[in-house]
Write a structure and sequence with these properties.
Length: about 325
């Protein structure tokens, strides 16, 4: 399934310029000759610019909360990330470990904690506030502590899987590897750390920064909780026991785009950037994608269409 995002935020300036000139907006890599001379047309927006703009706009919701209760994020309008669809965020019956729905019947999970998912009931709240539960029957080893879990039953359309980047993502980011995704804002749905003592199964939606410097490979990524330390929502922290599987994502045209599930945590000191956070294998790692293709696990993914953006490679 391919999404055609509106790109409203990133295109607004270009549209205003061209409308003021009384001409339609076009994109071109080379100048276009028109009556009266040669004019250079505006370039398409970049992926990095769009990702930064969408999430930074949501982060202005400083009056909203970052505390969330599991199985309520899909309908909770008080969260600072509203109206991003969060029905894809599931909860395991084993100690509340979090699962990310990527198709109607598959989830992403950390291999080292697979026992918290396989053989357990995974529940999701849909966009209507209805909770749907099914069994995770088995999982497939993908790459570097990442597994894809298969669900016994497909979830209804009202439970919307999280979007993913296309396999040609690197065409739209500067080299090397993940290039200008480094340092961009992202969201970490940390299972632990919620301050709602009346609801132990509560977490924090941390406004974080993505770091792409290689840890065990150039495609391992991690997030910084330092961004949350000075952010508008609360106190950030690094991953602790039970945070495995907590997802990190970016926002594109108000749609969540999956980055990784937490594999382990960096302490507040000693991390490559000295700022703590969680770390995991990037979902679009070419090695991981190849394994998913070989096992038919890319079928049904909701893939973001980036064709309207500027190619950088």
């Amino acid at each position: 399934m391919i999404m055609k995002p509106a790109l409203i935020t990133c295109l607004a300036l270009c549209l205003l310029i061209r409308l003021a000139a009384g001409a339609p907006t076009l994109y071109a890599d080379t100048p276009r000759t028109e009556a009266g001379g040669t004019r250079t047309l505006p370039e398409p927006p970049t992926l990095a610019g769009c990702l930064s703009n969408y999430l930074s706009a949501l982060a202005t919701n400083a009056s909203r909360t970052w505390d969330y209760q599991q199985l309520s994020v899909a309908t909770n309008r008080s969260l600072w990330i509203w109206p991003v669809n969060m029905s894809w965020l599931g909860r395991s019956s084993y100690q509340g470990f979090q699962a990310s729905l990527i198709t109607s019947n598959t989830i992403v999970l950390p291999a080292h904690a697979s026992g918290a998912y396989v053989g357990q009931t995974i529940s999701f709240m849909d966009t209507n506030g209805v909770v749907w539960s099914t069994l995770c029957t088995n999982s497939v080893e993908i790459y570097d502590d990442e597994q894809i879990g298969r669900l016994r039953d497909a979830l209804p359309p009202s439970v919307v899987p999280i979007w993913v980047f296309p396999p040609n993502l690197t065409n739209y980011i500067s080299p090397p590897q993940l290039g200008d995704l480094h340092g961009l804002p992202c969201v970490w749905m940390r299972k632990n750390g919620g301050s709602d003592t009346n609801h132990p199964a509560s977490g924090t939606i941390q406004f974080s920064t993505l770091y792409t410097a290689g840890y065990t490979s150039p495609w391992n990524v991690h997030i910084s909780s330092a961004a949350a330390l000075t952010g508008p929502f609360g106190f950030g922290d690094w991953a602790s026991s039970g945070d495995s599987g907590s997802p990190c994502f970016m926002v594109y045209s108000n749609q969540p785009v999956f980055l990784f599930e937490t594999h382990n945590g960096f302490p507040s000191t000693g991390a490559p950037e000295g700022c703590g956070g969680g770390q995991g294998p990037f979902f679009n790692d070419p090695a991981a994608w190849s394994v998913m293709v070989a096992n038919g696990l890319t079928n049904g993914l909701q893939i973001i269409d980036l064709s309207g953006l500027k190619r950088l490679r």
